[in-house]
Amino acid sequence: MKRTLLPCVVAAMALVALSPACSKDDPKVVIVHEGDEDVVKEIRHLQTEEEAAEERRIAREKEPVLDPEEPREKFLLVWGRGEKLLRSIQHERFDIFQQMRDLKLEEQADKDEINALVERMSEWTVGREDAELETAADRLCKLIEEVRPRAVTMMDAATAELTKVQAVTDELDKKVAEGGTVLQRQWDKLDKERTRWSGPLQAGRFVFLAIKSMLDEAYVLADLGPRRAQHALTACLGKLVEPPLPLELAQTQLEKVLARAKWYRDGY
Questions:
Q1: Can you give the pTM of this predicted structure?
Q2: Are 12 and 34 in contact (CB under 8 A)?
Q3: What is the Cα–Cα distance from 223 to 258, expressed in whole angstroms?
Q4: What angle is formed at CA 44 by the lines to CA 41 and CA 50, rounded to 5 degrees?
Q5: At what angle do helices 184-224 and 108-121 cross, to 10 degrees?
Q6: Which pLDDT tens digit goes with each residue over 91-131?
Q7: In Å, what is the CA distance from 189 to each residue of 155, 168, 183, 193, 266?
Q8: Rounded to an integer, what distance in angstroms lies between the CA atom of residue 126 and that of residue 133?
Q9: What is the tens place of the pLDDT at every residue in 174-227?
Q10: Is residue 65 classed as helix, strand or coil in its secondary structure?
């Protein structure tokens, strides 16, 4: 029979010791009877694994003793071990920018804004030279702070208009279901409005998909870069977690970068 193992164990026949954190009166304890040696072994193994995980967590949170001559501290690992991944990420982002430029937008103002956003976002990469790598975190955060409100404004306006279009569509559908008549030009007008606002909404999503790609690069920096780069990422990206980015993929990657920047791995 499958058993659910809990941290607290009461030994009925002294097979295991009662944890100091447990109480025999605790309704969540597991009662281990004589003959349940396999259960005892599983519990002890689980407790050992938890203790080892806690030790690893504590070790990771300790500030490391840094050697400025280590390859990591000299940025050598970023484009050493990370080159293939970085190039793949950058090619992916180039494709995102191309899709943004290819969007069929009806309003010139929308086209101008998208082109301006693409131009601004194209300015950033993690960099190749030490001077660029040193400022990568700050440059990324400034870019996100600049383009996020512009993209959100575009998406919010489009979403509001699409909500209105859907409301009218629902009314017409109801009218037809009740036996009424709806002229084709009414449907055509709704389709035109839906197309008009779907473009800017998609463009805003592309902005955050590009930001997610930049955060992919930032993860490589957090994973392979020096401790000072990790501190820089933590300091600035930590301020951007709230409010969440409106694309879940981007927000998840931001949180992954912050999590990776918390701990340092000596050498390789």
A1: 0.76
A2: yes
A3: 10
A4: 140
A5: 10
A6: 999 999 999 999 999 899 999 999 999 999 999 999 999 99
A7: 21, 11, 10, 6, 62
A8: 6
A9: 999 999 998 999 999 999 999 999 999 999 999 999 999 999 999 999 999 999
A10: coil
